[in-house]
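TL;DR need structure tokens for one chain.
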Amino acid sequence: MKLDLSELQSVDLDLKYSGSWPPLVKGIAYCFVFIMTLVLAYFVVLSSQLSDLSNGAEQDEKLRYDYESKYRLAYNLEAYQEQMLELEVQLAEMLKKLPATHETPGMLDDITFIATSAGLRISTIKWGNEAEQEFYTELPLYIDVSGDYHQFGKFVSDVAKLPRIVSLHEFSIKKAANGQLAFHIVAKTYRYKGK
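>> reply
TL;DR here they are.
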């Protein structure tokens, strides 16, 4: 089949007479209408459905992630509850080791007794200003004593054995005039601010 394009020049492309168009022109017109119908169908019908499908896939992924997270929480709930009970018991035990307001003078007496029992000579033992923190109050106790290393070591060891929480800070050691060593230390204890 040989195409003669010269025939197309004399064709009147009026839509009223489309039935008399040559077969080649009719074929091109049909293809054009078919392609335009597909393009129009895509933009009118399919694009919104594809967008909905894409949104649905994203939502499905998010819901799957949420489900997996909640499943892991539910699966480990019993272990978490046991852990919370253990932590509450530990917190209660630790809170028992913090002195109450009426027990702080007793702490001063205990540390004074420990220092003299270790053979240290006390220059100064006095409470500093309380430092408020978020959950507790810090109570510093400034201690200046003199003695030898072994006496000071026994003092530190005995302070560590106290039933209340006491931490030691700001150590300084200097040679005293009498040939002994002068020790400065800040012992801190803590008071819980909660109920």
